[in-house]
Amino acid sequence: MTIASSSGLSDKDIERMVSDAEQYAETDKARREVIEEANKAESVCADTEKGKCSVFPTAMMLLNVVSTAMGEFKDQLDAAEKDKVTKLIAELRELAAKGQSGDDTTVADTIREKINETQQASLGLYQKLYEKRSAEEKSSAEKNTSSSEDTENKEEKKD
């Protein structure tokens, strides 16, 4: 904020405003940090529900298989793990809402910790899904390979 004497304020008013700004600088900084973390938390919640992992870019490769919403894979996900992630998302959303509303009991570090906990849990959930689907694809490919080999062997015996 810029306070200039051309704004029609007296020197005394300007000094008071500068003093107030200095006095509340740390509080304002902490408040800004809470709001930024709360916004990040909301983004993490939305991305987790959609099956994305924007905060862990290297995990995106792992999560390509689950690029749609958690709901699409609900039958394939471990119920307990899914419930855990869903609960963490709800807790994170609640914490973000408190931070955005100005609740003084909510601090940026608390939001960061909950973001990390939610991301780790969702990453574990999707990693298990990825491993399960990979195993199923491998099993299916092996069946197809052995089936085609059987067909080739039968054709050779006919000749």
Report on the structure:
This protein has five helices and no strands. It starts with 10 loop residues before the first helix and ends with a helix. It has helices spanning 11-23, 25-50, 59-63, 79-101, 108-158. It is mainly alpha-helical. Helix 2 (25-50) packs parallel to helix 5.
Number of continuous helical runs: 5
How helical, in percent, are the residues?
over 70%
| Radius of gyration from CA coordinates | 27 Å
For the termini, the CA-CA separation is 90 Å
Principal-axes geometry comes out as: rod-shaped
Low-pLDDT parts are: 53-69
| Average pLDDT number | 76
The count of β-strands is 0
Order of helices and strands: HHHHH
Structural class by helix and strand composition: mainly alpha
Secondary structure topology:
Layout: H1 11-23, H2 25-50, H3 59-63, H4 79-101, H5 108-158
Helix pairs in contact: 2-4, 2-5, 4-5
Quick structural gist:
The protein has 159 residues and is an all-alpha fold.
Supply the key terms:
159 residues, mainly alpha, 5 helices
